[in-house]
Amino acid sequence: MIEPGRFLGFAFLNADLLFEVDSEGKILFATGATNTLTKRSQNELVGYTAGRLFRPADGAKFMTYIKALRPGQRLGPATLALAGGDISTMSLFHVPTNKHRISCSLTLSGAQRLNFPGSIDVQTSLPDSQAFLSTADATKSDCGQLALVNLPNLPDIAARLRPDEAKALYAHIGQTVKAMHAAAAGRLSETCFAIVADDPESAKKLAANIQDTAASSGAGDLVVESKSISLESANLTPEQTLLAMRHVVERLARTEFAQASQASIAETFNTLVTETLDRAMAFSKSIAEDTFRIVFEPVVDLKNGKTSHYEVLTRFPGNELPAEMILLA
What we know:
Low-confidence stretches: 111-116, 260-266
CATH class of the largest domain: Alpha Beta
Mean pLDDT: 78
Strand content: 15-25%
Order of helices and strands: HEEHHHEEEHEHHEEHEHHEEH
Shape: globular
CATH topology of the largest domain: Alpha-Beta Plaits
Distance between the termini: 57 Å
CATH superfamily of the largest domain: Reverse transcriptase/Diguanylate cyclase domain
Largest sheet: 5 strands, antiparallel
Radius of gyration: 24 Å
Number of domains: 3
């Protein structure tokens, strides 16, 4: 019989922290450098939500991994930032004989502390747009639908409610979005919410659930718009499609959300996704077929009138501006 201490020795060869979680992400057991990495003892970690060990965006990723893992499956190594900023490498294993417990191994990578984009929205407790995108990146091979729900008159309704009622309404909306158990969920703007899921009907279901939540909260006149957008494309890889979605969300966050207040943001989003996917495919084709041009612009020394050097510039088909194409790329 192998002594338990030997098992721990082998486990800690490549780990600084070992812990087990249930299917909801609650820590059931922990051992290792708990105080150093989490500022909590082993006993204090039991019952703690493991997602909170990480930065918000990466905590959402971790919870996605937990939900997706099936008995007998391994995941990782995956890079996640701890709440304190240290970068860690995480591996998970759902041992078939270990009931509903998922084994987690965490190792410090030794990388520099980084400030990751993304946080949790205070009103709804949902990931913001950057955190949503970080989580969506982890689902690129699993889910094919982006469900978008817009509530254009939500700010007006909240303004006429008592502060406690408005707070409760936002909290209930956040809970409703979370209850979809989607691979990724978030609040993209003041009025727009999104999830990534497999079900083509997820947008309609989320819209109906939010409508019911609003009615029970005394906001029955809440306007709810929904749109389901396919993330699957025969001409783009899943990674390219998710990057296209990231490009559109960031573009909307910068400009279009503010400009589309009188129109349907869902329709605007859909149009931009289609446009971005078309441009992405055209860009890939241009690179593959070598149809872009390189031109050389002389830079002249004003003192002697002679050419000092050349700037190398790119020209794409269709009069696409190089700066926009490079940003898209």
